[in-house]
Amino acid sequence: IYSVLKKFPEVNWMISFDNADQQKFEYVRHGAEWERFVSNIAILKRDNQYVQAHPAYSIYCALELESYYQFCHEHNLTDIFWCDLINPVALDIRQHNDELKNLAIEQIDKVLDKWPGKITSNFDTLRSYKKHLQTAQYYPELHRDSQETDLKKFSLAIEKKLKKSKTFAELWPNIYKLL
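Above: the chain sequence. Below: its structure as tokens.
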């Protein structure tokens, strides 16, 4: 299908990924292979395809925005389109404690200072996320009571179900300690 699509005059590829680290990428995108992912981006860019990064703003990336933007810059992904995370609630950084929220705000500020003009991104979306982190008013009505809100429990359940070789606690020890 790619050989057909790349011949069209205008095809936009939205690549959904949330991390710029091999082990974290493979943890979040179960079954994905980092090397294949990076290789596929290189093929798309070689063929002059328009490629847009499409991450979901979550605990998986909120404290590593600088490295995410650096990866996009290094791989000539000059457009980032943020997607809002509605569930699972446990992964929503905006629902966690103030210490984690403040670290996320610091990352947003660093990206806003460093990357405008270098990467096309909806910086208004990042500013909106910052506001949500500061005010703790983020669509609580969207979250159902039946959803797991405890990130440690959520991660353990996923790791057990999918037989993960690495754990959230191993890959994000700084976050795990602050939960």
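The mean pLDDT is 90.
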